[in-house]
Design a protein that fits this description.
By secondary structure, the protein is an alpha/beta fold. The protein is 32% helix and 26% strand. The protein has 2 domains: 191 residues, Peroxisomal Thiolase, Chain A, domain 1, CATH 3.40.47; 127 residues, Peroxisomal Thiolase, Chain A, domain 1.
């Protein structure tokens, strides 16, 4: 297989409910989120949704498909240029086999409303929540490395945590830990990636599924981090930066926090940690792409160097890692 090219962010567009006026990453870094509190099953949940003034959930919300399409509509309206006969990788909320009908309905509506997004035969859909970002990046890097292949690709992510099932799950987790400061939100992001001589070069990427929910013994996360550490140990290399999906949910954080010992030997006192989810809230698939965009942006600005690890986990099953070399 040909050597994978470095990738850079040629352009991007943000549409984040937690920071609706932020158009640049620098604005996100300086902004402050003012959440609204939602009462749900004896829990108080911090939220930031577009056009939502409720403090209770007494009214039936729009369907998930409708919310996702509305978010995409707003994102596309902000974009100075849209995909036209170009490759698009669509990063979506986590769907499993039981949700096949929901995913099919959404894609049918999407093709009817925005057929231009999936016109190329090389377009792909990644319905894996936050983990979709590392899955899609691996596929994109391999595709762009092929001879005579066009050297650009669109990533478009959309997700919304404005869902009854999410509220119930979060309320239960909040009750179990008795401590949480997570912000549930929604949004959409478009990222235009191009092959380049500088940026981030993908050294390794892998994903897995945790079949049984467990924070104490997340075997998928353990295996992914262990494999990463073994690869680095062979090269006698160490991590300069680790980017993690933590956004204040102590229950979810335990999935990776309990497995960080797998990285012993490749983490030093100089290793830095990046947790941008505290700034934007939990955004599902959109959050994973936001973290990738932030790493690309920092690499292009020369603010990160060495080997960088991005770990992602979806709300339920999927886990993923991507190891980058800043070049």
């Amino acid at each position: 297989m040909p050597a994978l090219p470095a990738l850079k962010a040629a352009s991007y567009t943000l549409h984040l409910a937690s920071l609706p006026h932020a158009r640049l990453l620098e604005q996100v870094a300086l902004a402050t989120v003012t959440p609204k509190m939602l009462s749900w099953q004896q829990a108080e949940i911090a939220t930031a949704f577009f056009g939502d003034e409720r403090t209770t959930f007494s009214e039936q919300p729009t369907t998930q498909s409708q919310r996702l399409l509305a978010l995409l509509d707003a994102l596309l309206a902000k974009m100075p240029a849209r995909p036209a006969q170009q490759i698009v990788y669509l990063l979506l909320p986590e769907f499993n086999s039981a949700d096949d009908a929901l995913l099919s309905t959404f894609l049918h509506q999407l093709m009817r409303n925005h057929p231009e997004l999936l016109q190329s035969p090389q377009c792909r859909v990644f319905p894996y929540g936050a983990t979709a970002s590392v899955m899609a990046l691996k596929a994109a890097a391999e595709l762009l490395a092929q001879p005579e292949q066009q050297k650009e690709i669109w990533f478009i992510a959309v997700d919304s945590l404005n869902d009854e099932a999410v509220f119930s799950r979060y309320a239960a987790e909040q009750s179990a830990t008795e401590q949480s400061c997570q912000l549930l939100s929604e949004g959409a992001i478009a990222l235009y990636l191009t092959a380049s001589d500088t940026g981030l070069q993908l050294a390794y990427a892998a994903s897995d599924a945790q079949l049984e929910p467990s924070t104490d013994d997340d075997m998928a996360t353990a295996g992914l981090l262990r494999q990463t550490a073994q690869l680095l140990s062979i090269e006698q290399a160490q991590l300069s930066l680790i980017c993690l999906p933590d956004s204040g949910n102590d229950y979810a954080s335990q999935c990776w926090l309990n497995q960080m010992s797998q990285l012993n030997g490749v983490v030093t006192e100089d290793t830095q940690y990046l947790l941008p989810g505290y700034q934007i809230g939990e955004l599902g698939a959109c959050g994973g792409l936001y973290r990738l965009l932030l790493l690309l942006h920092q690499a292009q600005q020369g603010r990160v160097s060495g080997l960088i690890l991005q770990y992602e986990q979806s709300l339920r099953r999927y886990r993923g890692v991507a190891l980058y070399q800043a070049v």
